[in-house]
TrEMBL record:
Transmembrane segments: none annotated. One of its GO terms (cellular component) is extracellular region. InterPro entries: Glyco_hydro_23, Lysozyme-like_dom_sf. Its EC number is 3.2.1.17. This is Lysozyme g. The keyword RNA-binding does not apply. Keywords: Antimicrobial, Bacteriolytic enzyme, Glycosidase, Hydrolase. GO terms for molecular function: lysozyme activity. GO terms for biological process: defense response to Gram-positive bacterium; killing of cells of another organism; peptidoglycan catabolic process. It catalyses: Hydrolysis of (1->4)-beta-linkages between N-acetylmuramic acid and N-acetyl-D-glucosamine residues in a peptidoglycan and between N-acetyl-D-glucosamine residues in chitodextrins. The keyword Hydrolase applies.
Protein backbone atom coordinates (compact mmCIF):
# COMPACT_ATOMS: atom_id res chain seq x y z
CA UNK A 1 0.00 0.00 0.00
CA UNK A 2 1.38 3.40 -0.93
CA UNK A 3 0.50 6.86 0.23
CA UNK A 4 0.75 10.32 -1.32
CA UNK A 5 4.13 12.03 -1.21
CA UNK A 6 4.93 13.60 2.13
CA UNK A 7 6.99 16.19 0.25
CA UNK A 8 3.76 17.74 -1.06
CA UNK A 9 2.18 18.28 2.35
CA UNK A 10 1.87 21.93 3.32
CA UNK A 11 2.83 22.62 6.91
CA UNK A 12 3.14 25.56 9.25
CA UNK A 13 6.38 24.15 10.66
CA UNK A 14 7.62 24.19 14.24
CA UNK A 15 5.84 26.30 16.82
CA UNK A 16 7.75 28.94 18.75
CA UNK A 17 7.75 26.64 21.80
CA UNK A 18 9.17 23.74 19.79
CA UNK A 19 11.83 25.95 18.18
CA UNK A 20 13.07 26.92 21.62
CA UNK A 21 14.50 23.39 22.06
CA UNK A 22 17.33 24.74 19.92
CA UNK A 23 17.01 28.34 21.11
CA UNK A 24 16.15 29.50 17.60
CA UNK A 25 15.08 33.04 16.87
CA UNK A 26 12.36 31.87 14.51
CA UNK A 27 9.46 29.46 14.22
CA UNK A 28 7.62 27.89 11.30
CA UNK A 29 9.09 26.06 8.35
CA UNK A 30 12.48 27.77 8.73
CA UNK A 31 12.75 26.47 12.30
CA UNK A 32 11.72 22.96 11.20
CA UNK A 33 14.42 22.94 8.53
CA UNK A 34 17.07 24.13 10.99
CA UNK A 35 16.10 21.52 13.56
CA UNK A 36 16.07 18.73 10.95
CA UNK A 37 19.53 19.81 9.80
CA UNK A 38 20.73 19.65 13.41
CA UNK A 39 19.37 16.09 13.69
CA UNK A 40 20.69 14.89 10.31
CA UNK A 41 24.06 13.70 11.58
CA UNK A 42 22.48 11.63 14.35
CA UNK A 43 19.89 10.32 11.88
CA UNK A 44 22.54 8.83 9.57
CA UNK A 45 22.99 5.71 11.72
CA UNK A 46 19.29 4.85 11.26
CA UNK A 47 19.14 5.46 7.51
CA UNK A 48 19.26 1.82 6.34
CA UNK A 49 16.64 0.72 8.88
CA UNK A 50 14.37 3.65 7.98
CA UNK A 51 14.67 2.86 4.27
CA UNK A 52 14.01 -0.83 4.88
CA UNK A 53 10.94 -0.29 7.05
CA UNK A 54 9.64 2.39 4.68
CA UNK A 55 9.99 0.07 1.71
CA UNK A 56 8.31 -2.84 3.49
CA UNK A 57 5.40 -0.77 4.75
CA UNK A 58 4.88 1.62 1.84
CA UNK A 59 5.62 4.65 4.02
CA UNK A 60 8.02 7.24 2.72
CA UNK A 61 11.31 7.08 4.62
CA UNK A 62 11.20 10.89 4.84
CA UNK A 63 8.05 10.66 6.97
CA UNK A 64 9.61 8.09 9.30
CA UNK A 65 12.74 10.23 9.62
CA UNK A 66 10.64 13.33 10.30
CA UNK A 67 8.80 11.60 13.14
CA UNK A 68 12.06 10.38 14.64
CA UNK A 69 13.58 13.85 14.36
CA UNK A 70 10.59 15.55 15.95
CA UNK A 71 9.83 13.01 18.66
CA UNK A 72 13.29 12.17 19.99
CA UNK A 73 15.64 14.48 18.10
CA UNK A 74 17.08 11.34 16.47
CA UNK A 75 17.63 9.76 19.88
CA UNK A 76 19.39 12.75 21.41
CA UNK A 77 16.49 13.47 23.81
CA UNK A 78 16.31 9.90 25.14
CA UNK A 79 17.63 8.40 28.35
CA UNK A 80 18.18 4.66 27.97
CA UNK A 81 15.54 4.64 25.21
CA UNK A 82 12.97 6.56 27.26
CA UNK A 83 11.68 10.09 26.75
CA UNK A 84 8.80 12.31 27.84
CA UNK A 85 9.69 11.82 31.51
CA UNK A 86 9.59 8.03 31.16
CA UNK A 87 6.20 7.98 29.47
CA UNK A 88 7.33 7.22 25.92
CA UNK A 89 9.71 4.67 24.41
CA UNK A 90 12.03 4.60 21.42
CA UNK A 91 13.01 6.93 18.64
CA UNK A 92 9.39 7.46 17.59
CA UNK A 93 8.30 7.94 21.22
CA UNK A 94 5.51 5.40 21.50
CA UNK A 95 3.45 6.39 24.53
CA UNK A 96 3.48 3.81 27.30
CA UNK A 97 0.74 4.64 29.77
CA UNK A 98 0.53 2.06 32.57
CA UNK A 99 -3.26 2.39 32.55
CA UNK A 100 -3.54 1.75 28.81
CA UNK A 101 -0.63 -0.45 27.75
CA UNK A 102 -1.05 -1.65 24.19
CA UNK A 103 1.32 -4.57 23.62
CA UNK A 104 1.50 -3.99 19.85
CA UNK A 105 2.64 -0.41 20.32
CA UNK A 106 5.24 -1.41 22.91
CA UNK A 107 6.63 -4.00 20.48
CA UNK A 108 6.65 -1.55 17.56
CA UNK A 109 8.37 1.03 19.75
CA UNK A 110 11.19 -1.39 20.56
CA UNK A 111 12.01 -1.83 16.86
CA UNK A 112 13.54 1.66 16.83
CA UNK A 113 15.34 1.36 20.12
CA UNK A 114 19.00 0.73 20.64
CA UNK A 115 18.34 0.02 24.34
CA UNK A 116 17.09 -3.07 26.15
CA UNK A 117 13.46 -4.17 26.24
CA UNK A 118 11.06 -1.60 27.73
CA UNK A 119 10.15 -2.02 31.35
CA UNK A 120 7.14 -4.16 32.17
CA UNK A 121 4.02 -2.73 33.78
Amino acid sequence: MGYASVMRVETTGASWSTSQQDRLGCSGVAASHTMAQTDSGRMAKYRSKINSVGGQSGIEPALIAAIISRESRAGNALKDGWGDNGNAWGLMQVDVNPMEVDTLHVVVGTVWSTSPKPREY
